[in-house]
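User: Can you predict the 3D structure for this chain?
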Amino acid sequence: MLAVPARTGELLEEIGRLGCRLEPHSPGYERLLGLPWPARVVVLAQVPEAQRDDLLRCVATGKIMGEALLWCAAHLFGPARELSMGQLEGYDELVGKMMASLTVEQRLAGLSPGERLAGLPPEERLAGLAPEEQYLALSDEVLRRLPESLIASLPEQIRERIRARLRQ
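Assistant: Here is the predicted structure, written as structure tokens:
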């Protein structure tokens, strides 16, 4: 049995050099003909799709998705956890792969605004905001100290939001 990540040109050239050929058997599985013993080639990139096997997809591609993601989450973070998973070899790599498979919204879900910004220096917290929007990031105490002439010079939408905060 030969398990390969994908059916590549190099694989086919090597099989040809051996005087063998592949015969399709089922999705992801091929018979290797021309050897004195029975042999099979398993193409790992195809088997998970054909068998809808999310755990094998994780092994074949390094991507944790579907049922495998749920299983990992239950065993890493859920009530099924019986030991300290953080002490197991490969734990950080597995968590990293799980995190990479989540959307930004999924990763941030449940975090408070302070937790979302923890560790970011002030200039990075404001990155991507237009200069006039940056005034909205100021505390109410600092906004109260701004001269009215400065607030009056801001776009109407920003001005209204600042004044609404100061009225509270």
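The first strand starts at residue 2 and ends at 4. The chain has a mean pLDDT of 83.
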